[in-house]
Prior knowledge:
TIM Barrel, eight-stranded parallel barrel, alpha/beta, globular, single chain
Amino acid sequence: MRRPIIAGNWKMNKTVPEAVRLAKQIKLLVEEDARERVEVVLCPPFTALHAVGEVLQDSAVKLGAQNVHDQPKGAYTGEVSVPMLKDLGCEYVILGHSERRAYFGETDEMVNRKAKAALSRDLGVIICVGETLHEKREGRTEEVVRTQVRGALAGLEPARPEQLVIAYEPVWAIGTGENATGSEANDVIAMIRRLVGELLGADTAEAVRIQYGGSVKPENIKSFLTQSDIDGALVGGASLEAASFAEIVKG
């Protein structure tokens, strides 16, 4: 049985002192759940990774990053490598978020290279896929999502399938207050799982966890977690408040 995973993406928010304060509050509220029931990951900005990592040390709450370069080192000003993240204690990294795709030109091929680099060094990945509002209105949700999944997973052979997490985040629902219904999200996620089976095999598809993301709140989390194929959530704004995030973790 797949263990649900709830990840908080803090995006470009929180100074180091603010991040430490938030991480301490969240750890206090969700530690028991993180040990017994659900995998919990916090993804602060790069500047706060070390400090938050110290807060989470010896805790069941795990540390994640929001992006990574596909090369282990080199002349890539402003970038961060997988070994650097591992050195800080990161266990996951978010890849291909729609904001990275929209604002920084990330492509499926780039996401694929990063995923291979991370998984080859035992760093779990949370790969984001999802359609825009325009694509949704054109009835292209399945086409767009299938293309992104195929591109991101091309040639992947994860040694530990549980380290491969896919987050279905419809772009039109991110930070807008709008969200897919539980059944709508489950239909897309079930399709993703079938595609993972075609690409990586049935056993891997059964082990891979697929989250929903996009305006996830305490008020709507149950509508997603009660679905057959949804294995957790990637949480944005609601992860910036300890009590709100804890409610989501508790489901």
